Amino acid sequence: MPLLCPADSAFGLPIMPGGLTLPALCRLLLPWAFAIFHKALGDSAFHPGPHYLLPPIHEVIHSRRGATATLPCVLGASPPSYKVRWSKVEPGELRETLILITNGLHARGYGPLGGRARMRRSHRLDASLVIEGVRLEDEGRYRCELVNGIEDESVALTLRLEGVVFPYQPSRGRYQFNYYEAKQACEEQDGRLATYSQLYQAWTEGLDWCNAGWLLEGSVRYPVLTARAPCGGRGRPGIRSYGPRDRKRDRYDAFCFTSALAGQVFFVPGRLTLSEAHAACRRRGAVVAKVGHLYAAWKFSGLDQCDGGWLADGSVRFPITAPRPRCGGLPDPGVRSFGFPRPQQAAYGTYCYAE
User: Fold this and answer.
1) Which residues are in the Link domain (predicted)?
2) What percent of the chain has pLDDT over 70?
3) 3-state secondary structure at position 29
4) What is the CATH number of domain 53-161?
5) CATH (residue range 260-354)
């Protein structure tokens, strides 16, 4: 039975404050009540206004560094006049970076990402964004916004890179970095500061580390797989948090993230000093590998070498994919470290990286 509002001429109806009659108020609120009613019932046929953008089938798009990624954004119908604006939501910052604007015929890119971004245009209603040569900093949240002057709409998608998280501290010892120094240190090691979601994923894959480190959002955390007294107590395992910290004053380690390599890492045996290691790699048309290079080779290429080798930061490490007693003695795969020996110590080989 339909809901009816009383007629204005109905006898004895009160006048509301401001001269608004009860029937007029009923007619004003009835559409809103129907909207709430239909939404509560989950009526997909009810649409209070125009909806041009189709919801994405997958809101998370997976890719690797160096690949080409497509972020889908498709119109179900074409408004008379419109623009589509793509932007990236910067983590830890209350701003969005403009990438591209199109009117369906012409597109213009903006900023550093705009030079690698284009429209897919597989059909006239396709506003999907294509990013070529995906970089580590491309991971994150993106927004496709339809601007038609009447009712703007948007869909949000996440570009997620397959990669590996590694803890990092300098030769001076632990807890030396403020946020900005940690960010720079990761970039120098072929990585970037990891996000919380990346650290969480690494924790589910076995990362267990007692030292706290900076994350990209500005928080400080550490992952504990086996709860123990030196690592925050014997409570439940998980990601322990120090919360947001002062980015300039507070000092911790860093959790870095890197992805697949364009080149390859290889080991050169010998008893070399650090300077001899650089020379050995140069003779082979390569450079001494960075920490991120070694972790990526271990993660994506299955590099397994039971020999310590110099890296570019002066540390000595080796990657193990098949744990065995004489290769570090630990039961799980990983990249083992000998720390930072004296650069003049001639006792190790070197890991080289070549494009």
Assistant:
1) 164-258, 261-354
2) 84
3) helix
4) 2.60.40.10
5) 3.10.100.10
